[in-house]
Amino acid sequence: MRTQVAIIGGGPAGLLLSQLLHVAGIDSVVLERQSRDYVEARIRAGVLEQVTVDLLEQAGAGARMRRDGLPHGGFALASDGETFRIDMQGLTGKSVMVYGQTELTKDLNDLLAQRDQPVFEARDVALHDVATDSPYVTYIKDGQTVRLDCDFVAGCDGYHGPSRKSIPADAGQVFERVYPFGWLGILADVPPCDHELIYSNHERGFALASMRSATRSRYYVQVALDEKLEDWPDERVWDELAIRLGPSVAPHITRGPSIEKSIAPLRSFVFEPMRHGRLFLAGDAAHIVPPTGAKGLNLAASDVHYLFDAITTFYRSGSQAGLEGYSASALARVWKAERFSWWFTSLMHRFPDTDAFGRKMQIAELDYLRHSKAGAAAVAENYVGLPF
Question: Would residue 373 show up in a list of annotated catalytic residues for this protein?
Answer without folding.
Answer: no
